[in-house]
Recover the amino acids of this structure.
């Protein structure tokens, strides 16, 4: 086994490290700690945070990549060159290996034992063929299907509760929530999540819980793989956009004059180009570059990853303008504050004023904008992939699933489960992000009613 | 005497805190009752509770309010709505935000009239509140009106329902003294002609003295003293009331220390066991802290909540009347000036159109000359918009001057002179970066100017100098009260050992008692460090207490300057005379007051000739032609007025 670090993995881990470092640092800042404690005390906020954390765990697991070592072909073990598979797998793939490998021929409904469409069987006329994997353990005893499903659900609930109890005991033992944190909301949400995950896991061992798609891939596997793509687009884009927005916003607001004019013209021009066109052009250019330099990428995953990063980059380039405008306005207000005037009276340099007096007083806006933008970017990825200018076709994403569902919905009878699965997961992710963003805004916005 | 409004044991609760706690008073028809106290004492909250307009977080926790015999607390909201505006109306402190900016003034007043089924027209009401050319003004939007006119329009709106009681919450605090005088006169006049009762909320003893029939002093949510006006101003009984009087700066206390009240008003959620004022009281005895003091009747409706009344006379009264040190006022011109400013001008271009062509200039500062010697205080006095703050910043080169020269020790300045001149700002909440610790804030100047030495030790020393503890260096600005923040701002300025401080209204955002602390501090620092102060203010009483020399500014120019005695005792310019007489004073001196008509014109388009002639009661033909030259009426006293010139030369020009 050989670990592989894709660029997007590296950036995601860098971002996580930054978030943890920032969290550790803000523990010592009185005003930040107060604000975070306010977020922590909100029941809705903490429930949303728990859901987000669950998504994050899936995303992070899916970002630990490696290549399988191929079995030595004819050589003595330990001799000859070691060969690695062309396919890049992640820790999540390893966990979900059964889901990944047990593909059917084509569409099958959730929990089905037969394919969705009739086919001509050898000499026996047309009928629904039996699935290779879904419900295979039942053998010929198809009557036991309902009972088997019910039994697996009950076992699943048991697993869920069993996993939750240690969590609960741990929280009781360490007396979390003593400082006002809404630990009950966290535990409640965790229980709900585990009560959903338990049965799903236990059913997934024998069935395709969310059905299969056109080429017979398990839809549950696809949705879980989509989470990483969504998270990456939502977070890496902001990482790219942030320095530009903060730097240009503060410069325009504080320095003023021709610098302000220049930056304003820049973002007015950028805003006037239809965003989709700009993104389409950039993605197509990237595509050409990737296609003409196949030697740059060792694996297909690396190539898809490059395209994902390019998408983040171009989304970042088009989306810094809003935050920059906001920061410029706030800087215009701050530069007239008496403490900035006082610093000027000491002859403090411009850069020092911007770093010491302006930037720290803008951070709450930056934080609020980051959290609020996240859900918008996840949705943007879905829309862009739907129009075909999003991620690489090999990358599994919500947008790609929805794009595929376009054809499925037109079938008679309709294939609804891909769309429903993508919709449900995306809805949960975006709703949790939005609720959390609201709580963050309420806690950090000084103008909010206290 | 039957009372129109009766308030009994009114309490307001915000969570566990009681910003108003057991307040009782009566207002008779046609009478003015004044609630007096510092900010945070619950005055406005009381008024809002009467109107049942408390903010969402607050609720009336108990008590009874009867208006014209009807209990207000039990009234359904629909009847309460007709009573608001109809029975009792309210005007607020900030006229700028009380009017809807997208509706014409006439329409807004008309709305109020229609609501109460009145017969009068908006124009009549605007006329009644003394707005000239009312018909035209009624069709204008709030932004086209000056601050004074907006407040008049607000009063007109309050009158629309012909209320029996007018609640005025700091109605003139946001206005200049000359405009304040106009509005107070108007309120008096309206009250007399309509027989209205008035609840006047104010922190200004002068305003209260001028307007009130009865005075109630509030402290930390409670009334501590209630008295008829004359009794209150003759012999205030409660130590807090007396401390408020003693803290007022004026000429009589010059050179001496003001009696300041230590500390500040306790926060809302404080739990009290004894007297609420005990911690700040100079006459406190152990019994004060044991139980809440009961009311003491002193006759003629005068009562106070203090257990020590009648025991002995105040220690405060003896501390204040130190005689002025002779000679200190007349040493100025013997020395070479530290700062000398000649013909300083700051013009801001007005740009219009696509090409942003300059179509004119706002002459914020237009030829200001002044001199200031080490160890002296020059007060730059004027109303808002006269350019005094801009002049102060231009002297520091925080705003680049358009013309003129600033010399320090005779050397012309080309840019910042950060080591020699520093500034203290008006707003103690805006002048400290909330994200920096106190120590870092004070060290900023030393670091920026690379001043050698042990910064930590110097910060401790500076904090000690301004009356704070050295350990406070590690704290954040939000942990400090307004007065403490202003001390920190002074320490920050002193950190680089400047010789001159520009003080831009350093006390106008502070309460009287805290203002006294800061003024004492400034006076003491000047004596110890030999600092020169350029004191920018509109508060004549502070000038009288602190300044050696005074320069009066009007519309970007200095109209009169001289020693404090020259300008304040024998003002020669009509504007100075009007400004001084507009200041509400506690002692009714009986002299005829000069009330100026109209507002200050825009500095973008100043009147021809003498800028003051459109408002001047003595304006002559000559005033319209040229701006008057500066005339010396004595070696230290210069005036720019045609009339004064005529007197000085002894014949017609």
């Amino acid at each position: 086994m050989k670990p592989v670090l894709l660029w997007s993995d590296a950036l995601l881990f860098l971002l996580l490290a930054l978030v943890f470092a920032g969290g550790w640092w803000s523990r010592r800042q009185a005003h930040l700690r107060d604000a975070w404690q306010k977020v922590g005390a909100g029941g809705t906020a903490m429930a949303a945070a728990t859901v987000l954390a669950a998504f994050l765990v899936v995303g992070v697991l899916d970002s630990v990549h490696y290549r399988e070592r191929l079995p030595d072909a004819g050589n003595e073990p330990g001799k000859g060159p070691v060969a690695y598979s062309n396919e890049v797998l992640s820790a999540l793939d390893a966990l979900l290996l059964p889901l990944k490998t047990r593909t059917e021929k084509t569409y099958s409904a959730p929990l089905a034992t037969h394919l969705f469409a009739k086919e001509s069987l050898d000499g026996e006329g047309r009928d629904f063929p039996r699935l290779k994997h879904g419900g295979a353990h039942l053998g010929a005893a198809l009557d036991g299907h309902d009972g088997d499903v019910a039994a697996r659900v009950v076992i699943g609930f048991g697993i869920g509760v069993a996993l939750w109890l240690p969590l609960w005991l741990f929280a009781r033992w360490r007396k979390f929530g003593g400082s006002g944190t809404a630990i009950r909301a966290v535990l409640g949400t965790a229980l709900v999540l585990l009560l959903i995950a338990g049965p799903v896991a236990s059913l997934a061992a024998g069935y395709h819980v969310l059905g299969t798609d056109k080429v017979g891939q398990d839809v549950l596997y696809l949705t879980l793989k989509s989470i990483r793509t969504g998270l990456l687009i939502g977070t890496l884009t902001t990482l790219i956009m942030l320095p530009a927005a903060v730097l240009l916003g503060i410069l325009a607001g504080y320095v003023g004059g021709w610098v302000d004019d220049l930056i304003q013209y820049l973002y007015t021009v950028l805003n006037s180009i239809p965003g989709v066109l700009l993104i389409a052009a950039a993605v197509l250019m990237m595509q050409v570059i990737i296609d003409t330099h196949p030697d740059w990428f060792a694996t297909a995953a690396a190539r898809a990853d490059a395209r994902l990063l390019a998408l983040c980059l171009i989304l970042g380039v088009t989306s810094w303008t809003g935050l920059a405008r906001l920061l410029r306005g706030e800087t215009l207000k701050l530069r007239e504050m008496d403490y900035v005037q006082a610093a000027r009276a000491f002859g403090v340099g411009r850069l020092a004023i911007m770093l010491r007096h302006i930037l720290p007083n803008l951070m709450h806006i930056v934080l609020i904008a980051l959290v609020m933008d996240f859900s918008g970017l996840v949705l943007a990825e879905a829309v862009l992939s739907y129009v075909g200018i999003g991620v690489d076709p090999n990358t599994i994403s919500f947008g790609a699933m929805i794009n595929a569902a376009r054809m499925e919905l037109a079938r008679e009878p309709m294939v609804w489960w891909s769309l429903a699965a993508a919709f449900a997961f995306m809805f949960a992710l975006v709703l949790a992000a939005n609720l959390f963003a609201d709580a963050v805004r309420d806690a950090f916005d000084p103008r909010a009613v206290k | 005497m039957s009372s129109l409004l009766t308030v009994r044991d009114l309490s307001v609760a915000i969570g566990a805190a009681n910003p108003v706690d057991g307040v009782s008073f009566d207002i008779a028809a046609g009478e003015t009752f004044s609630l007096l106290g510092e900010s945070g004492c619950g005055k406005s909250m009381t008024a809002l509770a009467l109107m049942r307009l408390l903010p969402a977080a607050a609720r009336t926790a108990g008590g009874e309010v009867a208006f014209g015999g009807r209990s207000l607390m039990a009234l359904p909201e629909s009847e309460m709505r007709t009573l608001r505006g109809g029975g009792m109306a309210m005007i607020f402190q900030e006229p700028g935000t009380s009017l809807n900016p997208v509706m014409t003034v006439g329409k807004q007043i008309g709305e109020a009239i229609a609501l109460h089924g009145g017969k009068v027209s908006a124009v009549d009401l605007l006329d009644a509140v003394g707005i000239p050319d009312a018909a035209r003004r009624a069709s204008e939007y709030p932004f086209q009106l000056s601050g004074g006119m907006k407040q008049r329009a607000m009063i007109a709106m309050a009158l629309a329902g012909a209320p029996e009681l007018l609640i005025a919450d700091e109605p003139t605090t946001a206005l200049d003294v000359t405009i304040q005088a106009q509005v107070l006169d108007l309120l008096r006049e309206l009250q007399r002609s309509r027989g209205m009762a008035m609840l006047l909320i104010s922190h200004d003893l002068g305003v209260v003295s001028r307007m009130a029939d009865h005075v109630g002093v509030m402290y930390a949510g409670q009334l501590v003293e209630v008295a008829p006006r004359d009794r209150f101003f003759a012999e205030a009984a409660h130590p807090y009331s007396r401390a408020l009087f003693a803290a007022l700066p004026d000429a009589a206390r010059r050179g001496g220390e003001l009696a300041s009240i230590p500390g500040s008003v306790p926060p809302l959620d404080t739990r009290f066991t004894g007297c609420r004022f005990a911690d700040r009281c100079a006459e406190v005895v152990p019994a004060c802290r044991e139980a809440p003091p009961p009311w003491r009747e002193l006759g003629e409706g005068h009562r106070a909540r203090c257990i020590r009344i009648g025991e002995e006379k105040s220690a405060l009264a003896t501390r204040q009347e130190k005689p002025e040190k002779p000679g200190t006022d007349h040493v100025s011109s013997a020395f070479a000036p530290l700062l000398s400013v000649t013909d300083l001008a700051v013009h801001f271009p007005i740009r219009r159109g696509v090409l942003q062509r300059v179509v004119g200039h706002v002459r914020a500062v237009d030829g200001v000359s002044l001199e200031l010697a080490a160890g002296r205080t020059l007060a730059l006095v004027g109303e808002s918009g006269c350019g005094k703050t801009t002049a102060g910043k231009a002297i520091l080169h925080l705003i680049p001057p358009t013309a003129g020269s600033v010399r320090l020790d005779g050397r012309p300045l080309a840019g910042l002179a950060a080591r020699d001149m520093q500034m203290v700002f008006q707003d103690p909440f805006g002048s400290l970066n909330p994200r920096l610790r106190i120590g870092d804030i004070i060290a900023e100047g030393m670091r920026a100017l690379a001043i050698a030495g042990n910064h930590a030790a110097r910060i401790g020393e500076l904090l000690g100098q301004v009356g704070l503890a050295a350990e406070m260096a590690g704290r954040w600005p939000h942990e400090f009260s307004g007065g403490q923040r202003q001390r920190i701002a002074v320490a920050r300025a002193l950190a680089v050992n400047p010789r001159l401080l520009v003080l831009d209204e350093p006390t106008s955002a502070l309460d009287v008692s805290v203002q006294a602390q800061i003024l004492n501090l400034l006076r003491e620092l000047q004596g110890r460090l030999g600092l020169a102060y350029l004191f920018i203010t509109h508060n004549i009483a502070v000038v009288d207490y602190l300044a050696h020399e005074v320069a009066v500014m009007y519309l970007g120019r200095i109209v009169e300057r001289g020693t404090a005695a020259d300008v304040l005792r024998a003002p020669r310019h009509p504007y100075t005379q009007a400004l001084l007489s507009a200041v509400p004073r506690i002692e009714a001196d009986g002299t005829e007051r000069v009330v100026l008509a109209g507002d200050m014109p825009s500095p973008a388009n100043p009147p021809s000739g003498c800028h003051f002639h459109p408002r001047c009661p003595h304006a002559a033909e000559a005033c319209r032609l040229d701006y008057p030259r500066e005339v010396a009426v004595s070696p230290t006293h210069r005036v720019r007025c045609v009339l004064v010139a005529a007197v000085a030369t002894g014949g017609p020009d």
The domain at 329-420+498-584+594-649 of chain B is CATH 3.40.50.300 (Rossmann fold). Chain B touches chain A at residues 393, 396, 398, 416, 418, 421-423, 425-427, 430-436, 441, 444-445, 448-449, 476, 478, 489, 492-493, 496 (CB under 8 Å). Chain B has three domains: 1-77+203-325, 329-420+498-584+594-649, 430-497. The first helix of chain B runs from residue 43 to 51.
